Amino acid sequence: MRTNILHIGAGELTYEIRNIVNVGNKLQSLGLQVNWENIGDPVAKGEIIPSWMKEIVADAVYEDETYGYSPTKGVLETRQFIAAETNAMGGVQIDPEDIIFFNGLGDAISKIFGFLKRTARVIVPTPSYTTHSSAEAAHAGDRPVTYILDPNHNWYPDLEDIENHVKFNPAVAGILIINPDNPTGAVYPEQILRDIVEIAAKNDLFIICDEVYQNMVYNGTKSVPLATVIGDKVPAISMRGVSKEMPWPGSRCGWIEVFNGHRDPMFEKYIDSILNAKMLEVCSTTLPQIVLPRIINHPEYQDYLEERIRRYERFSNIAYDILKDVKGILVNRTNGAFYMSAAFESGLLTDKQTLPIKNDDVRTTVEAMVAAPDISPDKRFVYYLLGATGVCVVPLSSFATSLQGFRITLLERDETEFINIFETIAAAIEQYITSA
Ligand SMILES: Cc1ncc(COP(=O)(O)O)c(C=O)c1O
After folding, report:
1. Residue 157 pLDDT greater than 90, yes or no
2. Whose CA is nearest to atom 4 of ligand 1?
3. How many domains does the chain fold into?
4. Residue 60 lies in a domain
5. Which domain holds residue 173?
6. Is the CB of residue 12 less than 8 Å from the CB of residue 138?
7. In this structure, are 397 and 352 located in the same domain?
8. Which of 179, 173, 184 is nearest to 151 (CA)?
9. Predicted local distance difference test score (pLDDT) of residue 16
């Protein structure tokens, strides 16, 4: 190219959750049977969408308005429905104009960070759901600014770390919270959320809170929506969607709720810039917005969701019970969403450890992949695990963290298969770390 066409943040856009699929597909084509435990799509893992839900969608297909554009912010009746639900929590009060729909939260995330001034930073958790950390880093053309989720304390945010970053880095303008969290499955206690709001209030920051898993908590844990703790001073954005809960990730439908938007003129302008960006695209997908209230109001919806949550609870505890005593890794019981992260003890992984791989083609391919420069120790483990057992997980280091480990989903529906997968991983870890 006669002139450099690369955006300053081009190198920051990595998404290992999808990259690992390419590796899995390659090994599958060589004869490996793969168990896909890497991607958070309940439908891909065999979730049966109930007939009553399909009927609602099918009926909507016969309504011509579902084929049209919707208002830029989204279908008014749906925004009225969501605003009423949020207001019924008794915390911050919003109206439909405070809600903007997007083509999935992925779209919302890219606009929220894309329209932030390049030098203004949002501090993100480490480990972090990469769509956030990569989009934030790409907007700045620099490494993400991160605060620690502490694996020795249930993966809760390290408040002192947040405070120190805020104190010593004047570029920090906002704090990102993901609650319940991906990739850790942690659900934060009310006090931690209140403390983060307090830090934001004291330092004139805004908050972004990804609450896409808000209604998916278990093990007796209480979900504490940001709306109930934000108060009336700190400007904030809550992000929600239908991908996980309904579950309908293919609908590409998510939305933001803006809290205390009028409290700060600069924040208000920032939200306007996000809305204007959406306006250039006209609007987001119409059909899922139209059916959203019908599905949530359906008499069977709560039972359906409850049944799934009970399954995640049960499987989360099975997974924890299998992995908790495995030497060399640290895991926490998960209380929400459908992911579990395991971290290896520091320095435990080497570049000599291996697992036996029977299929010659698979083995030579794995050996070639792990010989590439800059392969992180956990990626090496993940590739060997995949090649030797067929279990596909995501290296933890791809979630904007220097911790070495892996993230696995709890979405496998067959209990015997689920137990088998986790016992296989437990045995593979022991074999791998003692292999050299
Ligand atoms: C925390 C979190 N936010 C957002 C998303 C993406 O949601 P959407 O399908 O609405 O783009 C995911 C998907 O895994 C997620 O885990």
Report:
1. yes
2. 105
3. 2
4. no
5. 65-297
6. yes
7. yes
8. 184
9. 72
Report the run of H or E that residue 385 belongs to, with start and end: helix 377-389
AA letter at 279 = M
- Residue at which a domain ends, from 297, 329, 353: 297
What does the pLDDT average to over 78-84? Answer: 98
- Beta carbons within 8 Å of 217's beta carbon, 6+ residues apart: 180, 187, 223, 309, 335, 336
241 - beta bridge partners? Answer: 254
Check whether 8 has a pLDDT greater than 70: no
Report whether residue 243 contacts ligand 1, using a CB cutoff of 6 Å: yes
Report the distance separating Cα 94 and Cα 66, nearest Å.
26
pLDDT digit string, tens, across residues 88-107:
999 999 999 999 999 999 99
Cα of 106 vs centre of ligand 1, distance in Å, is 6
User: Would the pTM of this model clear 0.85, i.e. be above it?
Assistant: yes
Give the number of the atom of ligand 1 that is nearest the alpha carbon of residue 41: 14
Q: How far away, in angstroms, is 277 Cα from ligand 1 center?
A: 20
pLDDT, tens only, 183-199? 999 999 999 999 999 99
Adjacent-strand bridge partners of 123: 175
Residue 18 pLDDT exceeds 80: no
Q: Is the pLDDT of residue 9 over 90?
A: no
**Token pair of 181, please?**
């969290």
Are 286 and 306 part of one and the same domain? no
* Residue 101: inside a domain: yes
Task: Locate the ligand 1 atom nearest the alpha carbon of residue 102 and give its number.
Answer: 10
Query: At a CB cut-off of 8 Å and minimum separation 6, what does 372 contact?
Result: none
Helical residues (DSSP H) of 329-376, grouped into ranges: 360-370
Closest CA to 293 of 74, 33, 114, 140: 74
